Amino acid sequence: MSSYFNWWSAHYTTEIRYPKESALVATKEQLSSTTSVFLRDFVERRCPSLYSEFRPAWWLPNGHMQTLYCVLGDFSGRDKVVYKRTLLRLLDGGTVGLDFTPVDDSHVPPDTPIIVVLHGLTGGSYESYVRAILSPACMPVHQGGLGYRAVVVNFRGCAGVPVTSPQLYSAGHTDDLRQALFYISHRYPEAPLLGLSFSLGANVMTRYVAEEGERCRLKSACVLGCPWNLAANSSKLLATYIGRHVYSKGMGRNLVNLLKRHVGTFASDHDVAKAAAVTIGLTKPTIDMFDEHFTRIGGGSSPPWPFASANDYYEYSSSHKVLNKIKIPLLAINAADDPVVQDIPMDAGGNGWVILALTPCGGHLGWFEPDEGWGQVKRWIKRPVFEWLRATGEDLVRSPPHWRPLHEEGGFLKEVGNDRLGCKELDGGDIIVGTEGEAGLLAGL
User: Fold this and answer.
1) 299 neighbors 173 (Cβ within 8 angstroms)
2) What 8-state DSSP symbol labels residue 402?
3) Residue 12 to residue 18: CA distance in whole angstroms
4) Can the peptide bond before residue 306 be classed as cis, meaning omega within 30 degrees of 0?
5) Are 362 and 56 in contact (CB under 8 A)?
6) Within 10 A of 129 (CB to CB), how many other CB atoms are there?
7) What is the C-alpha separation between 222 and 158, in angstroms, rounded?
8) DSSP state of 78
9) 166 in Cβ contact with 273 (< 8 Å)
10) In 185-329, where do the E strands start and end?
11) Peptide bond into 384 cis (omega under 30)
C-alpha cells in the first residue's frame, strides 16, 4: 500500500534537473552582509513551491484539456491589470509597444525590481497567463504582493502595436527585446530587471540571454513553455492528427489573421509584401506552412534574414543549443504533457546557470489546479515564479554588470560601439486594460 501512495505522490512531483557543477552566486544575508552559495542550494531554499506537488483540476486531467482551457477559458474576471503604453520607434523604422504597470508608479522606489515580460506566439499584455503573475507581483506589499513594476514588451503588430516597417517578429529575432531593454534600463537605471517569458517569447528571451552572456541587462530570467528545438517540436506536432489539425492549424490561423491586419502597411514591391500576399491566401495553414511562406522572409532583419527554408530558420532560431552560453540565473519550466512542446533539453546544456524543471502535467501554459468555488481554477505556476522573482530580485547580489554604456545620437538611444541598433520614445501614452484581448485571435497560445 505504501508503495502505491509513493507512486501516486511521485506522479505529481516536478522533476528538477541541475548540472553537475552549479554556478556560485552571491546572496544577501542578515545585517546586510553577503555570502556565496551554489545556485542549486539558493533555489532549493528560496523556491519551495517548485518542489511541491502540482495536482491538476480533475476536470482538466491531461495536457490537451489544460491547453484548450488556456485558449477557451474565460479569464476576463480575474487578475485585472491596467497598463500605460509607451511606443518605441526602432532604428530600422519598426515599432514595439511597452506596457508598464502600475500606471501610477510615483510611490514605487527607483531601485524596485522590474519584471520584463515577453508574451507568446500572437499574444500581448492582455494574456491571462501574463496577468496571472503580474497581478500579484505588482500588487503593493501591504496587500500581499511584491510591489514590483512590470513591463510587457509587445512584439511588432501584436496587441494593437502598429507595423511601421517591412518586418514582423519571430522566435529567433532578439534585437527588438535588446532595444527595449536599452530604453527600460535608461528610464530606470537603479532597478534590477527580471526576465519572464512565455512560449515563443521564452525562446526569444533565452536566445537574448545567451547572446549577451555577461553583458546581459537582465539580472535573472524565468522562461515558461519554451519551444527549444523548433524543428523537432514542429515535426512531433505534425506527426499526430490533433497536433496537425488542432494545434498547428490553430496557431497558423492566428498568425495569418494577425498578418492580414498589417499586410497593407508593406510596400507592394517589397519581398516581405510579396510573401505576405501569398501567405494570407493559404487555406488552413499549419504553423510550419506559415513559417515556410512568411517567417523565413519577414520574421527578422538582415542579416541573417531571409532564410532559404523554414528548416533553416528553425535551425538558426532554436534556443536549446545556446543554453551553454548563459551567464545569469535562468529557471526554465515545461510540462511533460505539453502537446505543443515535446522535445525538452533536460540536460540544461550542462550549464550551471540553468535550472530546468519539468512538471508531470500542465499542458502548454496551463498548470491549472482547483480553486475555491465550483469549477474554478487557479494557476499553480504563479507560486514558484513568484518565489523566483522575489528571490532573484531581492536576495540575489549581482556582480557589477559588463554591459555597454548608453548614449543618445540623432534622437535615438544607442549602446556605445553599436550603431546598428537604437530606439526613441514616441508621443502618446494610452491606458491599456489588460483583460481586453484582440478580436479574431485565439488567446492563450
Assistant:
1) yes
2) -
3) 19
4) yes
5) yes
6) 27
7) 22
8) S
9) yes
10) 193-198, 220-224
11) no
Using CA atoms, how far apart are residues 156 and 266, in angstroms rounded to an integer?
Answer: 13
Cell of 158: 501584436
Which helix (H) or strand (E) segment is 95 a member of?
strand 95-101
Query: Each residue of 133-177: pLDDT tens digit?
Result: 999 999 999 999 999 999 999 999 999 999 999 999 999 999 999
Strands 396-397 and 24-28, by their bridges, are: antiparallel
pLDDT in tens, 15-61: 999 888 999 999 987 556 788 999 999 999 999 999 999 999 999 99
Cell of 127: 494574456
- Name every residue whose Cβ is closer than 8 Å to that of residue 159 and which is 6 or more positions away in sequence: 97, 99, 119, 123, 124, 125, 126, 432, 438
Cα angle 414, 419, 425 (rounded to 5 degrees) comes to 35
Tell me how far apart the terminal alpha carbons of the chain are, to the nearest angstrom.
41
Is the pLDDT assigned to residue 442 strictly greater than 50? yes
Question: Are 295 and 170 in contact, with CB atoms under 8 Å apart?
Answer: yes
Per DSSP, the three-state class of 374 is coil
Residues with Cβ within 8 Å of 342's Cβ and at least 6 positions away in sequence, in order, are 232, 233, 236, 237
What is the rounded CA–CA span in Å between residue 100 and residue 115? 10
Cα 170 to Cα 321: distance, rounded to the nearest angstrom: 17
Closest CA to 222 of 80, 26, 54, 381: 381
Q: For residue 131, which amino acid is it?
A: R
pTM of the model: 0.95
Beta bridge partners of 39: none
The residues near 437 (Cβ < 8 Å, ≥ 6 apart) are: 124, 126, 127, 443
Beta-bridge partners for 145? none
Chain position carrying cell 487557479:
378
Task: Look up residue 326 and give its amino acid.
Answer: I
Contact 428, 227 (CB under 8 A): no
The H or E element containing residue 171 is none
- State the CB neighbour count (10 A cutoff) for residue 306: 17
SS3 237: helix
217 three-class SS: coil
What grid cell was written down for 181? 531593454
C-alpha pair distances (Å), 414 with each of 186, 406, 423: 10, 6, 7
CA–CA separation, 364 and 380 (whole Å): 13
